[in-house]
Amino acid sequence: MAEEDRALQSRLGDIDRDNTRWLRGVVDEHGWPTRRMVGDDGAAAAWLLVQHADHDPEFQRSCLDRMGVLPDAGATPKHIAYLTDRVLLAEGQSQVYGTQMELANGTHRPRNLRDPATVDERRAEVGLRPIAEYIESMNRDQS
């Protein structure tokens, strides 16, 4: 990895840690920022921050637990699905929805997927497109 790439990666890590620290304060003081509290854009931004807080898996788990008990308008099912998979993988378990990918021989595939034969049913329940379409788009976006 080039020195410039390492510096950029380090800076992005600093930003992620700062964002996580800020969001943790918000969550501790107000609870999970629901769509009703902060609107769709605000809730999506909060989810994206916690989704990328891989340096703090305990915080990710805490946020997922908070999101999971909210009424329907609190968090989108897609956001919960993505964070569920991220948290499960960090905890050494299989993911449920196939949202987390790895590259193998130049193509994307789901990391450690639980029961692949029924993944499309689970994905449909939360409004995600079939896994084959998701993989195809990931591979297309890569090129």
Return the string of H and E elements.
HHHHEEHH
Distance between the termini: 20 Å
| Helical proportion, percent range | 55-70%
Number of distinct beta strands: 2
What structural class results from the helix and strand content? mainly alpha
Any key phrases for this structure?
143 residues, mainly alpha, 2 domains
Describe the structure.
By secondary structure, this protein is mainly alpha-helical. Helix 2 packs parallel to helix 4 (77-90) and helix 3 (57-68) packs antiparallel against helix 4. It folds into two domains: 1-75, no CATH class; 93-143, no CATH class. It has six helices and two strands, in the order H-H-H-H-E-E-H-H. The radius of gyration is 16 Å and the shape is globular.
Write the layout of secondary structure elements.
Layout: H1 3-30, H2 35-51, H3 57-68, H4 77-90, E1 101-104, E2 107-110, H5 119-125, H6 131-142
Helix pairs in contact: 2-4, 3-4
Summarize the entry for a quick read.
This protein is mainly α.
